[in-house]
User: What shape does this take?
Amino acid sequence: MTGAIGQKKMGYMVDLTADIMKSVTATQLLAASVVFALVILLIRSYRKKMPIGTKKVPGPMPYPLIGNVFSLSRNPHISLTKMSETYGDVLQIQIGTKPVLVLSGLETLRQALIRQGDDFLGRPDLFTFSLIGDGQSMTFSSDSGEVWRARRRLAQNALKTFAISPSPTSSGMCLVEENIIKEAEYLIRKFQQLINEKGEFDPYRYVVVSVANIICGMCFGKRYNHEDEELLSVVNLTDEFGAIAASGNPADFIPILKYLPSSAMKAFREINRKFLSFINKFVNEHYKTFDQNHVRDITDSLIQHSQEKKVDENSNIHLPNEKIVNIVNDLFGAGFDTITTALSWSLMYLVAHPEIQEKIQTELDQVIGRERRPRLSDKAQLPYTEAFISEMFRHSSFMPFTIPHCTTKDTTLNGFFIPKGICVLINQWQVNHDPKLWKDPFTFCPERFLNADGTINKIEMEKVMVFGLGKRRCVGEAIGRMEVFLFLTTMLQQMHFFKHDGEKLDMSSHYGLTMKHKRCQVSAKLRFPMSSINE
Ligand code: HEM
Assistant: This one.
């Protein structure tokens, strides 16, 4: 009996299992078919967009949800350079769930940014960028159409009028040149005072104020002294700003991260708020005292444009006031951190290589002497100094990536299909350390930019990637180069910089939008008695 019941039970179980098997298989089969059909549809719709003969961009396999985020490491410029050795100049990674194109190789960058410039000039719509300048930034916002073009033109014209135009003082210099030379003299005086008091100083802390004074002068007609708390509270925010605004921040690519509480993101919002309120204070004062017959500075000229509701004689574009005046925010922000970082790296290399410092000083003594200050027009006669500046830009590559770009339409590059709207990282660091372009790329050697007869090798200089290329190329390049040259030559003509015996320099760089070296104390001594300039 029990055996019969047992057998019946067994038979029932087998039937049930068979039924379940049948039904599960049917459900699974159905689900599998749907998934399969969807995948095929997806592949087909993707393939449909890929023009015949184009290839899919190669890259490492992404993990679900996080993509290749762990492959980026603390130094994404180095990780992505290594990746380009495996996958080539055009490669694709995934950060979080979003695909990101990474471009390397000088020729590939020239092809994308110059020859196919219109296809690659966009800016991606990134979360951190939306927090900069209240989302109105010309540099960081995703607008890359007519409005961006009109704003960029305004910025270029304003810089030309208030920086590059000849000074009315009949000195033969341009407006900004006179200011830089004066500011460099104040800086040397400050260094001398610090040496008398403490014997050494942190150059970055003082260079940043001098450089900020140049852009403050151009934008607002204002100058600060080195201890001014208001200015210091703004210029000292750049390290935190650069760490968050750097290329490849996961918060820009993993949507959930923007909703999670983050102290870094809170600090970033606060930095942007402080920065904007600093700028707005000047803008409001300028509105109150504006006189269209006496345009004093860049802010006034932008107010004038916003009141006349025009960009220039040939433009029909109408820009809202805030889109015009906000340009000053972009110029001020871009105008001091980059140049301070360049000068700070320069001083580090000079202290680390005293023989190079001596060569520059010998060149300055021979060409300029000690009776007058260096001027921009001396540049052509100072090839070694110019070679040093190029090598500082190349070796430090302190802007490892440009600001991220994005494609404005479906396109192809080197035979690869690139869809519209993909975020594009431009690896400037890779170009500047590419062994195919540079002999011993990790050696600091200004001579690589000199011809056998000691003149400058322009072709080599043009290989250095530091201001970007093409339609998004830095609008402040001429001013940036001028400031680095004049601050540096004025300082080196009068001062010798060194480190105390036995102290080590830490030349490692900290990743960010602009990469900084570790702050350090240096010492200096006057090469001859200074002329008197009072701050
Ligand atoms: C050594 C100094 C400087 C360096 C190395 C530098 C570098 C750069 C780089 C790499 C970019 C991004 C290009 C791209 O996205 O493809 C850029 C953009 C920009 N720079 Fe500079 N820059 C310097 C100085 C300046 C100065 C002095 C100003 C203004 C007074 C300035 C204003 C700008 C602006 C407004 C943009 C955004 C352009 C746009 O999006 O259309 N820069 N710069």
Summary: Confidence is low (pLDDT under 50) at residues 1-21. The chain has 18 helices and ten strands. The longest helix spans residues 2-49.
